[in-house]
Amino acid sequence: MIKIKSILKNIVIIGTGGTISGVGENGKTVSYKAGSLHVHDIYYNITGINELANIKEHIDIVSIDSCNMDFSVWLKLAKTINELSKHDDIDGFVITHGTDTLEETAYFLNLTLKTDKPVVITGAIRPSTATSADGPFNIYQAVALARSEEAKGKGVLVSFADGIYGARDVQKGNSCKLTAFNHRELGCFGYIRDDEVYFFNKSLRKHTNSTIFNVENYKDLPKVSIALFYAGADSQILDYLSSTSQGIIVAGAGCGNCSDSWNLKIKEIISMGIPVVRCSRISNGIVTGKNENILETGVYGNSLTSQKARILLSLALTKTKNLSEIKEIFNIY
Ligand code: ASP
Fold this sequence. Notes:
By secondary structure, the chain is α/β, with parallel strands linked by helices. It contains 9 helices and 16 strands. It has helices spanning 39-43, 49-52, 71-84, 102-112, 135-146, 236-244, 260-271, 306-316, 323-332, and strands spanning 10-17, 23-24, 32-33, 54-64, 92-96, 119-122, 157-160, 163-166, 171-172, 181-182, 190-193, 196-199, 224-228, 247-252, 276-280, 299-300.
């Protein structure tokens, strides 16, 4: 009898650091150094990984705590994946990442990668030296997702603790539990049980091949800053940000609301030609500009969190400074 060996998919694993590659006191979950190990050291002896896929290549792009993530690393990641994805013998990508800014990297790549091949980001809440470290299982499931046919064309995905999330709406919702990620009130894309992938949803917003953003020739991106509003907040912060940034995101209260002095200042800044996007400091709901008294000709963040709106505004500013065009961009992505 001829035994037909199933052909394994070729996956590239890209390490960026984070707790998943953190090393600390044996058994403990806190007090460790993120980004201490090479990516090879955190995946090569995971039980069953070699039966899932052929890990064709591993690359350490950087090895940092993800709080040190910035545009230069994002551009490097985007360019590396865009280049490698042209190779027919590469089927998908897994990125290991710190959980603190994982959702931001996911959204940046979702808007700038030019591939339909699965790109899956994962991380861990516990360092590699902790008792019951969650990194190995998260990598195992990320590889299972990256090799799956169903993951193609769905934009950048996040795989974490049995869940599948889309880059636009995923957020870190808990600072210490193993189920740290959620998709806000928008549900999730699906689940993974062991290595089996179950999709139920996808995003209707444009991503990857269908965006207008192409970062191939960029070395940096326009600086956009975020101002957090709170009761009694001094509007001088907006003066400072308007003198140092090309765009501002306001994380307002409720539906993007701010005090009279902030509203006045926002109008002034917009009239100076600096785009201001109103978001909410609340992670659920939508900011449309049709709410309450914020009807200046600004841009509204829709359902994007401030940190994701900042990425979109920065990319938008590579295309246009026109407010109605930026508004349209926020309606599309
Ligand atoms: N500070 C770490 C990081 O983002 C936290 C983590 O990975 O969970 O790199």
